[in-house]
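Sat 14:20. Reprocessing the chain from the morning session after the first attempt stalled halfway. Input below, unchanged.
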Amino acid sequence: MSQYADLKAQIARLQAQADEARRTEVEGVIAEIRQKIAEYGLTPQDLGFVVGAKRGRPPKKAPLPPRYQDPKTGSTWSGRGKPPKWIAGKNRERFLIVQG
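Finished this time. Tokens:
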């Protein structure tokens, strides 16, 4: 066999030994960590893990109170987002809801 092939075979044997050594050491480390967690009553938050993080859209926020009201229909608008047709292009001060 060539020197290159011998070295590749040796690398494969050493990698298998390293994988086996890691596997056995990891088992011991996990057992030790579990024992310490139980002994001290640690929680995921104590260890710096974020609990409850979810994927996807964030939860909806509570709707804003209305700031404007159409005197004809009683329709309201919070002032955020696209303005409704009844207020679009008009002086908004006329439609302000008086806080009292």
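The first strand starts at residue 68 and ends at 69.
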